[in-house]
Amino acid sequence: METPPIKICDVVQFYSTLSGGVRRYIHEKIAYLLEHTPHSHCLVIPSHRDAVRQEGRTTIHEIKSPRLIGSNSYRMLINRRKIMEAIAAEQPDLIEVGDPYRAAWIGLKAARKQRIPIVAFYHSDYPRALDRTLRKYAGPRIEALISPIIQKYLIKLYNRMSATVVSSQRCYKALDKIGIRNLKQIALGTNLRTFSPRDSRSRIFIVLE
Questions:
Q1: Contact 70/79 with Cβ under 8 angstroms?
Q2: What is the side-by-side order of every strand in the sheet holding 183-185?
Q3: Which of 3, 15, 75, 136 has its CA 20 to 30 A from that of 68?
Q4: Calpha distance 26→36 (Å, rounded)
């Protein structure tokens, strides 16, 4: 029995037009949905402008956003009204958020308003990264004070999600340890058209031919 088409909405803070792992993840998803499924897709991203454009079955909502301090390529997706309007216009069946910041809370509000599930993708081990930064620049005492606050924040956010997706066993264990429920581990996989075992000399000969 075929799965009926659905619409998936990605709300993505860390999307850069230049590069980045999250951007790659999103574009691989767009390609997969187009090539292998009947599903449609919408994408809400920060931008230097307000615009709506279409790429295949993906509708991209660009929301004018201020630059992230200290970054030339990333912007802060913080405009609640415009994010809510974009999601309301698309009427998705599922929302996915890719960060634990303001956009995730806005996504939660939109999901509740439309009575649809929302999942979070835990792209990076934020507590571990922040702990390292605090230890380096503020010392172990400050790290010991701040770390529990960060963990409580993550629990408060992610335990409101329908599910939280991780791509590695390490992240699964880290989130499970602090009390985050309904975790799902899904490996990202490898594009075998790009990465495959082959003798390097054979590859050179193929290129030369």
A1: no
A2: 51-55, 58-64, 40-47, 7-11, 94-97, 118-121, 163-166, 183-185
A3: 136
A4: 15
Q: Which of 42-56, 62-76, 116-130, 175-189 has the highest mean pLDDT?
A: 42-56
Condensed to tens digits (0 to 9), the pLDDT of residues 29-47 reads: 999 999 999 999 999 999 9
- Cβ within 8 Å of residue 1, ≥6 positions away: none
Instruction: Give the model's confidence band at 122: pLDDT under 50 very low, under 70 low, under 90 confident, else very high.
Output: very high
Yes or no: say if 34 and 57 are a contact pair by the CB < 8 Å rule.
yes
Please enumerate in sequence order all residues whose Cβ is within 8 A of that of 92, keeping only pairs 6 or more positions apart, or say none: 6, 7, 8, 9, 42, 114, 116
Beta 58-64 vs 51-55: how paired, if at all? antiparallel
**pLDDT tens string 155-203:** 999 999 999 999 889 889 989 999 999 999 988 766 666 666 665 555 5
Whether the CB-CB separation of 29 and 41 falls below 8 Å is answered with: yes
Strand pairing partners for 96?
10, 119
Rounded to the nearest 10 degrees, the angle between the axes of helix 140-158 and helix 102-114 is 10
What are the CA-CA distances from residue 75 to residues 5, 81, 108, 204 (Å)?
32, 17, 20, 40
CATH topology of domain 7-208: Rossmann fold (3.40.50)
**Mean pLDDT, residues 47-52:** 96
CA atoms within a 13 Å half-sphere pointing along the CA-CB vector of 176: 12
